[in-house]
Amino acid sequence: xxxxxxxxxxxxxxxxxxxxxxxxxxxxxxxxxxxxxxxxxxxxxxxxxxxxxxxxxxxxxxxxxxxxxxxxxxxxxxxxxxxxxxxxxxxxxxxxxxxxxxxxxxxxxxxxxxxxxxxxxxxxxxxxxxxxxxxxxxxxxxxxxxxxxxxxxxxxxxxxxxxxxxxxxxxxxxxxxxxxxxxxxxxxxxxxxxxxxxxxxxxxxxxxxxxxxxxxxxxxxxxxxxxxxxxxxxxxxxxxxxxxxxxxxxxxxxxxxxxxxxxxxxxxxxxxxxxxxxxxxxxxxxxxxxxxxxxxxxxxxxxxxxxxxxxxxxxxxxxxxxxxxxxxxxxxxxxxxxxxxxxxxxxxxxxxxxxxxxxxxxxxxxxxxxxxxxxxxxxxxxxxxxxxxxxxxxxxxxxxxxxxxxxxxxxxxxxxxxxxxxxxxxxxxxxxxxxxxxxxxxxxxxxxxxxxxxxxxxxxxxxxxxxxxxxxxxxxxxxxx
Length: 481
Hints:
By secondary structure, the protein is α/β, with parallel strands linked by helices. The protein contains 16 helices and 15 strands. It has helices at about 15-30, 50-60, 70-75, 90-105, 120-130, 155-165, 185-195, 195-200, 225-230, 230-250, 260-270, 275-280, 405-410, 415-425, 430-450, 465-475, and strands at about 10, 40-45, 80, 110-115, 140-145, 175, 205-215, 285-290, 315-320, 335-340, 345-350, 365-375, 375-385, 395-400, 455-460. The longest helix has 19 residues, at about 230-250.
């Protein structure tokens, strides 16, 4: 047990869906594994007039575990403070409760703040935390987690950076992207750079293309109002997809030190090949899902009660990226993400070039697939001799998927990231330079969309629009999934 595990957590947004669905179960798992000390407490804040008893009840309901006594014990560490984040006077009450709980649980002054709120509140909250003396003193631990998105465009992200650095040191800021907490994403460094078999062919002379797919089977559900103001480009590409791209496109870091790994990621994002407006427009497909008029059980995106009936918001994006580095120059990185697609799958497909001098005319391309979910593991598509008398070849797939037992031991995304924030490890958190580089790309895309009418449609539970297929076929490639 480390000193850092003795922590007072203050959660802004404690009444939200993310807290109940992800954060409370993640904290419980840490508590059960004794990675979170008995000397911890959590103050939940929100505008709702909840009580401590109400919050503790919500916490208990959010946890799926047979040990009811442990759940009761865990939930007793939670306290609620109704709070208007824009009213400075409320922070006096918050400080009084924080000081009281610090003493009650013998926490020792360590503070972790989690801001699961809209980004326009980030600066306001941190400013008041500093003004009303809620941050830990220099002798103790002080960390602040900011839930995505970090800004709404490049300008707001830059402004947020400047404002937050007025109140916090850089090493106190943790920009969370839950994809960076996935075990298989963390494993990319090991896969690429610890295996000569992989590392020696991870270059432009061997790789034909790389495909990043983040497909969801659900629609926007109850998030329609939020989603209609955001869209797939900002909701998924700006963070999740570009973070994954940085791991796949980076050159080998100088070492496994956090600073060197983060620099390699930043370099990959900064080296996204710039395109003029015409080329950029041709490299992107945006679409919106529609339901068959005869299928009354399904609704089109525009039929969602919380969505504008004339909405032009995209629920699907596919695009092509190139990275300007010696390792992978000229290799197309195709990405796509969408709602109401044929299946839920998150995967990276690395498609290798065929041998030009192969004696097998009909050999299939080798494909290494990294599965993030719902399966978790790797598969490799290779050629082998077909069974029988003929000396032909057939395709086989070598699979290595995590077992149920292994998956049970694998920390959840948020569990891992909260643990690492408590421990002070920033390696799996987005950094300012990564965020700025990603917003630069997103802003360029949004700019070429402003006066265009290129929004197309795709059927619910399909793999997306035909235009996304054409994006690859014009380059002589095709989607693997």
